[in-house]
Amino acid sequence: MLEKIKEALKEPMAKMDIVVDDITFDKEGSYYFLRITLDKVNGLDLDTVVEATNVINPILDDLDIIEESYILDVSSKERGGE
Question: What global pTM score does this model have?
C-alpha cells in the first residue's frame, strides 16, 4: 500500500522538485496517521509543504486504498543543525 502511494506521488512531486523521502502508516492511540516526509535540495519551507499537501490530498482521495480514517501529516525531512 505505501509503495503504491509513493509511486503515485513521485511524478507530481518531481514536477515541484520535491522527493518523497518516506511514507509511514501508524496507529497512535485510537488514531491512524499517514506520514509523508518530503525533501528538496536546500530544504522545504512551510509554504512549499502546504502547496505539496494540496497536490497530495486529491491523489490520495483518487487512490482510495486506505480503508481506515486517518490524519495526513506531510512534513519536511529534518536537517542537521549547522
Answer: 0.92
